[in-house]
């Protein structure tokens, strides 16, 4: 049914309760591709273990992330929704691509530097080679387009370099993917430290809006958001906090920065923060309701996982078989 369509792939780590950053930077944009592309949306649990996880929580969040994909509008009949560790081809191709990825390239990755600083007692090899697993995720499906937040741009550029390097040696094995980065909400910042990305693993709960936070919590967190000592709702030097709130408000209401400046002209930060909180809560209301319904049905989620894994595995096997042949592995039946 999906023959001849170009491919979209993206993934989210079940490494915490998903944030407004994950939603506006990535998941909210996924369903727009379902008509035109063959879409693979993956819960990347193998990436999540590059940082130590509680096994029971990782399992629960894997189900929850799948349920959230659907609650955010991804229809499992029109998208392949699956869990990374259910398709072993990801690990197999990652190993092969590790051998085509340079130490110097991996050393330059800013996410590796950031996460190493945050997890100084666990700077493991998986954290270092994370980008070649990500390249495997993408290249396995001959992906054309990868919708991600801007923080993943560097990893995606490395995926392109790896694909080009491999193709340069063996001929056109991989499609070279392009990033799709949203224009207004590519990087949602922390509400407590607007110079830092909003991250699901941030220990400060007030810094992060969770997709599943209830209305009062959302409104309260926005009221407390760090801004500056001024009172004008506009962008400018030293106004990163306000600019972040303007991007969020723009992303959920569809209003431009100019329209937002006009709407809040002379009204002060209090009014603006309340409006942002209410608009975000309104936009997440339906997602929360759908999530509650879907997450209660574990059996259904497992059916979706099984169907997704089998569809993904079939497509992945085609690319992996070709790659193994190209690098010179023998093939026997047993
Ligand atoms: N703050 C953000 N603004 C816009 N987009 C974001 N994304 C993440 N944070 C923001 C995008 O969400 C997708 C899934 O991200 P991920 O699960 O791979 O992990 P991450 O980028 O490492 O996100 P977190 O929330 O910061 O996770 P932790 O705390 O576990 O490291 C990606 O497309 C990402 O760009």
Secondary structure elements and pairings:
Elements (H helix, E strand, L loop, with lengths): L5 E7 L7 H11 L6 E7 L1 H4 L6 H17 L8 E4 L5 H10 L4 H5 L2 H9 L6 H15 L5 E3 L5 H18 L7 E3 L34 H9 L16 H14 L3 H7 L4 H28 L2 H30 L7
Parallel strand pairs: 1-2, 2-3, 4-5
Entry summary:
The chain has 334 residues and is mainly alpha-helical. It has helices at residues 20-30, 45-48, 55-71, 89-98, 103-107, 110-118, 125-139, 153-170, 215-223, 240-253, 257-263, 268-295, 298-327, and strands spanning 6-12, 37-43, 80-83, 145-147, 178-180.
If you had to describe this structure to a student in words, what would you say it looks like?
The chain is mainly α. It folds into two domains: 205 residues, HUPs (Rossmann fold, 3-Layer(aba) Sandwich), CATH 3.40.50.620; 88 residues, Tyrosyl-Transfer RNA Synthetase. It is built from 13 helices and five strands. Strands 1-2-3 form a three-stranded parallel β-sheet. The longest helix is centred in the C-terminal third of the chain and has 30 residues. It binds adenosine-5'-tetraphosphate. The site of adenosine-5'-tetraphosphate (AQP) has 21 residues, from helix 1.
Hetero compounds: adenosine-5'-tetraphosphate
Spell out the helices and strands N to C: EHEHHEHHHHEHEHHHHH
Q: Order of strands side by side in the largest beta sheet?
A: 1-2-3
Please count the beta strands (DSSP E, at least 2 residues each). Answer: 5
Write down the overall mean pLDDT.
96
Indicate the CATH class of the largest domain. Answer: Alpha Beta
């Amino acid at each position: 049914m999906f023959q001849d369509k170009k491919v979209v792939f993206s993934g989210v780590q079940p490494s915490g309760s998903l944030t407004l950053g994950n939603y506006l930077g990535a998941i909210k944009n996924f369903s727009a591709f379902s008509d035109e592309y063959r879409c693979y949306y993956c819960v990347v649990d193998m990436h999540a273990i590059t940082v130590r996880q509680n096994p029971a929580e990782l399992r629960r969040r894997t189900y929850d992330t799948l349920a959230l994909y659907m609650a955010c509008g991804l229809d499992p009949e029109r998208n392949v929704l699956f869990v990374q560790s259910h398709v072993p081809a990801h690990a197999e191709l990652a190993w092969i691509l590790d051998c085509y990825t340079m130490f110097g390239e991996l050393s330059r990755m800013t996410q590796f530097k950031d996460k190493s600083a945050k997890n100084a007692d666990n700077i493991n090899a998986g954290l270092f080679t994370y980008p070649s697993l990500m390249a495997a995720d993408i290249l396995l499906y001959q992906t054309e387009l990868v919708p991600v937040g801007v923080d993943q741009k560097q990893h995606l550029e490395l995926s392109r370099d790896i694909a080009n390097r491999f193709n340069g040696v063996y001929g056109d094995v991989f499609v070279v993917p392009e990033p799709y980065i949203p224009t207004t909400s590519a990087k949602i910042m922390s509400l407590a430290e607007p110079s830092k990305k909003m991250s699901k693993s941030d220990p400060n709960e007030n810094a992060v809006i969770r997709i599943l936070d209830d209305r009062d919590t959302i409104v309260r967190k926005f009221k407390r958001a760090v801004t500056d000592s001024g009172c004008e709702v506009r962008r400018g030097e030293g106004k990163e906090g306000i600019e972040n709130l303007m991007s969020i408000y723009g992303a959920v209401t569809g209003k431009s920065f100019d329209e937002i400046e006009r709407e809040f002209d002379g009204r002060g930060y209090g009014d603006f923060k309340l409006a942002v909180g209410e608009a975000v809560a309104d936009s997440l209301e339906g997602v929360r309701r759908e999530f509650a319904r879907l997450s209660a049905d574990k059996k259904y989620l497992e059916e979706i996982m099984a169907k997704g894994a089998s569809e993904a595995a079939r497509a992945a096997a085609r690319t992996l078989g070709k790659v193994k042949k190209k690098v010179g592995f023998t093939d026997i039946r047993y």
